[in-house]
């Protein structure tokens, strides 16, 4: 079997060169994937020109099609978001919108094009909202065809109010470390199963 591939979409509002606690969190998930022989890549979406809209390609300088190709090549998609005012980032919302723009496309069996891909979420912040953000993103992924295993919403939040973030104070949190491991292993196990035994087309086509 070909090695599994995981794509991380970092929806931090910071571009490359600035510290991203969300990316630090993703790096810790990558450690487990590497041990499992899974290839991984992180894309910092703030580095790209992503047009507003719900089409696969909005034309002009839209760079989403390049990212979409990487989504298509991946077996596992992990969306990572910081929290702002208790909500996922605007870029995280935009990811779901742009993925939704391809939800009517089908694979060679007539299923939604995202069938047999596995989804997960990581959330960081020094304020509440991790479960709310996770619920929103995981529902969005499931609705357009991704399969969501149990316990794939790994997160860390700090104390109420301004304070330390994940890379400052969260990496040794035992709850979060266990959640990171479950995320990696549960997405890996389910993606492996779907690689060998895809969801049957019967009763699962768009037409």
UniProtKB/TrEMBL annotation:
<feature type="domain" description="NADPH-dependent FMN reductase-like">
    <location>
        <begin position="5"/>
        <end position="152"/>
    </location>
</feature>
<dbReference type="InterPro" id="IPR005025">
    <property type="entry name" value="FMN_Rdtase-like_dom"/>
</dbReference>
<protein>
    <submittedName>
        <fullName>Multimeric flavodoxin WrbA</fullName>
    </submittedName>
</protein>
<dbReference type="Pfam" id="PF03358">
    <property type="entry name" value="FMN_red"/>
</dbReference>
<dbReference type="InterPro" id="IPR029039">
    <property type="entry name" value="Flavoprotein-like_sf"/>
</dbReference>
<dbReference type="GO" id="GO:0016491">
    <property type="term" value="F:oxidoreductase activity"/>
</dbReference>
């Amino acid at each position: 079997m070909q090695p599994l591939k995981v794509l991380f979409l970092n929806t931090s509002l910071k571009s490359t060169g600035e510290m991203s606690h969300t990316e630090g969190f993703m790096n810790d998930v990558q450690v487990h994937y590497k041990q499992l022989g899974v290839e991984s890549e992180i894309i910092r979406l703030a580095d790209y020109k992503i047009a507003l809209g719900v089409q696969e390609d909005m034309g002009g300088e839209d760079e989403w099609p390049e990212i979409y190709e990487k989504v298509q090549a991946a077996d596992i998609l992990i969306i990572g978001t910081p929290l702002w005012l208790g909500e996922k980032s605007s870029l995280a919302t935009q990811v779901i919108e742009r993925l939704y723009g391809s939800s009517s496309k089908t694979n060679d069996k007539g299923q939604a094009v995202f069938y047999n891909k596995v989804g997960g979420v990581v959330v960081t912040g020094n304020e509440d909202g991790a479960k709310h953000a996770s619920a929103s993103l995981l529902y969005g992924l499931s609705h357009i065809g991704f399969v969501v295993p149990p316990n794939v919403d790994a997160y860390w939040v700090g104390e109420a109010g301004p304070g330390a973030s994940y890379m400052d104070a969260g990496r040794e949190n035992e709850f979060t470390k266990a959640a990171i491991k479950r995320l990696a292993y549960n997405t890996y196990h389910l993606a492996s199963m779907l690689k060998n035994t895809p969801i049957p087309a019967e009763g699962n086509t768009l037409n």
